[in-house]
Amino acid sequence: MNSCLPADLGALIASARAGSVRAAGRLLSLVESADRERVLALLDPAPVRVVGVTGPPGAGKSTTIAVLVTGYRARGLRVAVLAVDPSSPYSGGALLGDRIRMSAHIDDSDVLIRSVATRGHLGGLAAAVPAAIRLLGALGYGLVLVESVGVGQSEIEIAAVADPTVVILNPGAGDAIQAAKAGLLEVADILVVNKADRDGAAQTARELHIETGLPILTLVAARGTGVEELIEAIDTHHRADTAARGAARARAQILSLAQSRLRGHPGLDDLAAAVAAGRRDAYTAAEQLLAEASPDQAR
Question: Please, what are the domains in the chain?
Answer without folding.
Answer: 1-43 (no CATH), 44-241 (3.40.50.300), 245-298 (no CATH)
